[in-house]
Amino acid sequence: MPSDDTTTHTRPASAAPDTDRRTRDESLTSLEAGLDALQTDVHARTGRGRRALRALLPLTISVSLLLLVWEVAFRLGPQDVTRFPPPALVGLTFLRLWDDQTVVTALTTSVERGVVGFLLAALIGTPLGIVVARVRWVRASFGPLITGLQVLPSVAWVPAAVIWFGLSDATVYAVILLGAVPSIINGIVAGVDQVPPLFRRVGLVLGANPVELVRHVILPAALPGYLAGLKQGWAFSWRSLMAAELITVGGDIGFGLGQLLQQGRDLGDMSRIFVGIILVLVVGIAVELLVFAPVERAVMRRRGLATA
Amino acid sequence: MTTAPHAVRVTGVHKRFAPTGPAVLQGIDLTIRPGEFVCLLGASGCGKSTLLNIMAGLDRPTAGTVEVAGDGAALMFQEAALFPWLTAGQNVDLALRLRRVPRAERRERVAELLEMVHLGGAAGKRVHELSGGMRSRVALARALAQERDVLLMDEPFAALDAITRDLLHDELERVWTATGRTVVFITHNVREAVRLGQRVLLMSSRPGRIVREWDVDVTGERSISAPQVASLALEITDQLREEIRRHAV
């Protein structure tokens, strides 16, 4: 194709200028089209089914291995089922708790609280995060406080929340918010800080006012960091929720996974405790795999930051 | 189009980044005629990007004035600087949207602008799916979407390979002829300056000043390898090296 280029340039100047320009433009167009085609990558995308399989297979292997180690540990140990039950016994307990609706009640109660609490935290944390990231004096004065709040384990709020709100769902939500909002704020701030200065300058040159700059440039550019913040916010919500549920039993409060764990302790039922722990873990993994991972992958792929 | 005799007029511009710091720009006087293609040439660190930023209104001069015809200038950056979360078409569209062009008109304008840079079929492509040359052309289309008489370009093709850059020179020349824009093009590549500019201004470093200028009157087509381009480039290179040598201690 470059040979095409040279012929254009050595064309004698005697040719009629109009036709000359036209042929030159045409050859430029085809030359450019050729170069564009050569320089554009062609790669097939992995199908959804294959990708799911690729994610599930290693997980199956790791879970099977874990169960195997657990079983072997049980057999090699003192075989005391009240202190360390084998997988099969925990499985049976799970089925029993499933049949009497305990599992479903605990799961739906906790997941509902977790999701509602997390969404509330996102709703509160997002605008606060934008303000902290963009307004210098707010950031200087409240930034360190918010980071401090993030370090403070939200369980520390439980006694206070119980006194303020009693044994009610409000206590649970208060603890979730105090745990999750700071980490969502920090996620946005980190995301905004990572926006390349060049993007802001482009926005300014294109004539964006401060609001448009945030809306069209800074927020979209900060999206990957924001997503990471939301993910962390969910982890904090879920952990705070478990801590709150574990401590606050009785009163008006509904029966969640934390209460299931506490019940296991009260009854001295180790299998029940194991069922509780596994359910807490499974929900955490499921939300990561089914909610956050696909969204993150879609965002990254759209920006060319991840393949397949 | 403006009827004023100048598209850009820079008068006595000085720039220091700190009150006691060294002068980055010193006594820059410059008039650019409407429709002119001017190349600002200089070694790295001579303040040419600073001068361009001042013309673009992104930075203020410490002293002196800058007048730009119309509503200010459009600017094309060193990297294509497209937004990766948007498609090629949406990147151009955003420039129109921020100018408050009504939605109904925008779709057609985006198609026209992309067609202008021979990317009519790439509107739906994501930025990472485009080659470097295609990204530069989308950035050019976005700069044209700003509808400003003056187009400032800050080493826009510096990161491209030679074949692509050659082609973009042809492309830019064609777009310049077709749109009648005034172009101020910054580069540290002497041949590129001579290939593109009607006038080449050489800047010295520390402090940045305009030390010499050449009118490029190559008749007919010029390519980067045309003999007239090459001989003028040699002359300018000599002068540029002389300027750089002055800094040796």
TrEMBL record, chain A:
InterPro entries per the UniProt record, alphabetical: MetI-like, MetI-like_sf
Membrane topology recorded in Swiss-Prot or TrEMBL: Multi-pass membrane protein
Subcellular location: Cell membrane
Keywords for this protein: Cell membrane, Membrane, Transmembrane, Transmembrane helix, Transport
Example GO BP: transmembrane transport
Signal sequence interval, chain numbering: none
Residue span(s) of domain ABC transmembrane type-1: 107-291
Entry GO CC: plasma membrane
UniProt cross-references to CDD domains, sorted A to Z: TM_PBP2 (cd06261)
Alphabetized Pfam families for the sequence: BPD_transp_1
Disordered as annotated region, ranges: 1-25
Spans traversing the lipid bilayer: 55-76, 115-133, 145-166, 172-192, 241-261, 273-293
Keyword Cell membrane: yes
Family membership noted in the UniProt record: Belongs to the binding-protein-dependent transport system permease family.
Protein name as annotated: ABC transporter permease
Provenance organism: Sanguibacter suaedae
Automatic annotation (TrEMBL), chain B:
Top-level taxon in the UniProt lineage: Bacteria
The keyword Nucleotide-binding belongs to this UniProt entry's keyword annotation: yes
Short name of any one Pfam family annotated for the protein: ABC_tran
Single GO MF descriptor: ATP binding
InterPro entries: AAA+_ATPase, ABC_transporter-like_ATP-bd, ABC_transporter-like_CS, ABC_transporter_ATP-bind, P-loop_NTPase
This protein's UniProt keywords: ATP-binding, Nucleotide-binding, Transport
UniProt domain ABC transporter: residue ranges: 8-232
CDD domains: ABC_NrtD_SsuB_transporters (cd03293)
Protein name: ABC transporter ATP-binding protein
Lineage of source species: Bacteria, Bacillati, Actinomycetota, Actinomycetes, Micrococcales
